[in-house]
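Our platform keeps sequence and structure together, in a single record for each protein. Because each token names a local backbone shape, the row as a whole describes the fold. One such record is reproduced below, unchanged from the form in which we store it:
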Amino acid sequence: MADYQKGNEDGILLYYKYAKVPDVRDLVRFYESNCTSLGLLGRVRIAPDGVNVTVGGKMSSLKKHIEEVKSIGLFEGTDFKLASCGAPSDDRVVKESGFTSLSVRVVKELVTLHSHPVSKSPDMSNAGKHLSAVEFHSVLQSASKCEDKKIVLLDARNVYETRIGKFQNPHVETLDPEIRQYSDLPAWIDEHSDQLHGSQVLMYCTGGIRCEMASAYIRSKGSGFENVYQLFGGIQRYLEEFPDGGFFKGKNFVFDHRIAVGSHDPSIVGSCLICGSSFDDYSLRCRCTHCRMLVLVCYRCQESSDSVYVCELCKKHSKGGGGLTTENCTFDSERTHDTMPDLLTLSIKHELDIPLDNEPSPEHTGRADSEYSRKLRILCLHGFRQNASNFKGRTSSLAKKLKSIAELVFVDAPHVLPFVYQPREMEPNRSPGATLSQQANKKFAWLVSPDSSFSMGSEWKIAGEPFDPLQYQQQTEGFEKSYAYLKSVFSKKGPFDGVLGFSQGAAMAALLCACRGREGRVMDFRFAVLCSGFPVIIEEFGQGLIDCPSLHIFGNNRGNDRQIARNVSEQLACMFDKSCSVIVEHESGHIIPTWSPYIDQISCI
């Protein structure tokens, strides 16, 4: 580990501390001053419940930093993991891992366990008991003799980490959740609680922090889940204590320019995604075409293969190809998997009075490759008798406000509507061609009325009756066609993090929320933004609350929305689970407000 005789060597320092922070801003100032003066680069995350730090620099500077931190009472008992390392050989990896600058940020919590933003985190005082590396090893060593106890190993890391190294013992079952991100772990625990109930659970992760909250979550389940233990200091401390690897086989994936740290045992656990040969080198940063998660592709296959790289999770959920353009593995800063927090997570910013972190580090969140920043991808559904082009124009201010965190994708609905016009009273017989452009853009709809037997074409038709503000109540047909169309959009243009709908588009988006999971993960998304929406009842979806994080935006009683009344949009909001929904009301009409203070509220959600 650390060579304290060579102060000019480069090094990496990792540590975390769960404790109530009395003055968050004061601690921010300390880290900014201390790290800057010592020339340390990396990530510092400070939350009301503690601190998580990963910084690099000269060994002498890192040791000075440790001594100064130790002088602060908050850090009593902190485990400082200091390692000497060679200078990075790849500037790209250094940049991707966040070691080109110092980033000190305030976050809501050190790790994000739940994907639903308002889900309550488990009580950290109920975390699993710490086992030292020696104690952890001893339990595994004696496992064959403990016939009266069921012992299971639980890996709390992401699947791209477990590919290249994990604990193995022939007498102990190892549970690998195979998750993309840490916030997927609670769902896995819920689904596999029968394997954990009544067992002695030994948890481990890279450095220990992810096990803290995850072990508390398991223990919160009550009777039968009390015996949960966690490896103190994580795999890193274990390999220091057992340099030959002990029961850990392969390499420990780390979130800095070292990429992975192994033991004296040269054996390789990972394998090439293409040919299956032994391989565990992530340095070339090959990625799944669909979800952008890191994948292992050996040097030979990188040179000879022109196939799309599809990770095991995308294969499992049927994202294996189907018309996608072949591409080689290259770093794409705007499409890397799941580094941004959930859109709705930011909605509690005002209640907490804490600016939340947009670029959390992986050991803080456990999310796949979150040393990269990726924009949220949001599919936008226009209103009735609109199209993608004019909806894009109407939301340009919103897109500009969100440009640093979100990419808006616009598509036309599948139902083409005829052109209609109201003739002027003084010119009842005048041809529409004389007054209306023959080049008018087509208009579309997601839902249509049952009597929509009109022919589709470019001819203008005289409106049969004056505009009816309640016409949306008759637009109840055409869902299956729109659903099938959007399924192809998700397949060809996805994945999408969320769906934004306006008016009828919001009604369609709500129906998508109601049938999430109907097509497995083909149309999977994490949240919905519904603007001036209304409910459309389709019997096959049942009457239960819709369990999808949602943001509802509509005019209040003073908003004077002449098309969708406030109580109608409110009815739609009431169809969603209140524990994961947020409402923003404005004083304007049938629009998405794009001025202060509403635009600021929306962009913070």
Remarks:
- The radius of gyration is 27 Å.
- Residues 377 and 407 are 5 Å apart (CA to CA).
